[in-house]
Amino acid sequence: MANIYLHYTLDLWFEKVYQKSCAGFARLIRYADDFVVCFQYKSDAARFHKELGKRLGKFRLEVEPTKTKVMEFGRFAVHNAKRRGKRAETFDFLGLTHYCGTRKDGKGFRMKRMTSRKKFLAKLKIFKEWLKKARTLKTKELWETAKAKLRGHYNYYGVTDNLRGIARFGKAVESLLFKWLNRRGKRNCLNWEKFEKMLKRFPLPKPRIRVSMFNFSVN
């Protein structure tokens, strides 16, 4: 419903009306009710911020103020932030924190992504809550379900530049599994040495980049 409603409320208005009034490049990226708008010039961005509220208001919608802001981003943002002795700002979109980085050779600007802290903690909490509810499952079934959950996490968050983020999540899940399996048996019946042997015999999915943000292919 959000896609249908905002297609007419936002997308077409931006494409047919607002974008044509901009002094420079402008682009809207939207998924359901979450969107980011990129502008070449600050004046276009500031004006859009004001007009967006009026546009949405006509359809009895409003912008969430705590999740909406105008910010400088890109290679000029990095340069300007350094002059002020600060770092360039970041923004979260679809569970990923987008930040200013450089290419592999260390030269030139490139936007990079990592799992947002908020989503990382939320997903870990969800996994922990699932473990509590899975106390009646047999170890084999619990293990297979945990593997499926990890694969799902890697498939979504395994994008270019985020290998460290998904690897960190995988390690946190291993730790939770170790603690939970230890609780199921006699106290301290499972030490790390035994658990590592178990991991070698029944390996969990390995974190790896699944989606390239440059050629849009899935591995």
Structural description of this entry:
With 219 residues, this protein is an alpha+beta fold. The chain is built from seven helices and five strands. It has helices at 2-18, 42-57, 75-83, 117-133, 139-157, 163-184, 192-201, and strands at 26-31, 34-39, 91-93, 96-102, 109-115. The strands form two sheets. A three-stranded antiparallel β-sheet has the order 3-4-5. It starts with a helix and ends in an 18-residue tail after the last helix. The model has no long low-confidence stretch (mean pLDDT 92).
Largest sheet: 3 strands, antiparallel
Q: Helical region count?
A: 7
Distance between the termini: 31 Å
User: What is the typical, i.e. mean, pLDDT?
Assistant: 92
Strand content: 5-15%
Q: What's the helix and strand layout?
A:
Blueprint: H1 2-18, E1 26-31, E2 34-39, H2 42-57, H3 75-83, E3 91-93, E4 96-102, E5 109-115, H4 117-133, H5 139-157, H6 163-184, H7 192-201
Antiparallel strand pairs: 1-2, 3-4, 4-5
Helix pairs in contact: 4-6, 5-6
List keywords for this structure.
single chain, 219 residues, three-stranded antiparallel β-sheet, two-stranded antiparallel ribbon, 5 strands
Short characterization:
The protein is α+β, with helices and mostly antiparallel strands. It has helices at 2-18, 42-57, 75-83, 117-133, 139-157, 163-184, 192-201; strands at residues 26-31, 34-39, 91-93, 96-102, 109-115. The strands form 2 sheets. Strands 3-4-5 form a 3-stranded antiparallel beta sheet.
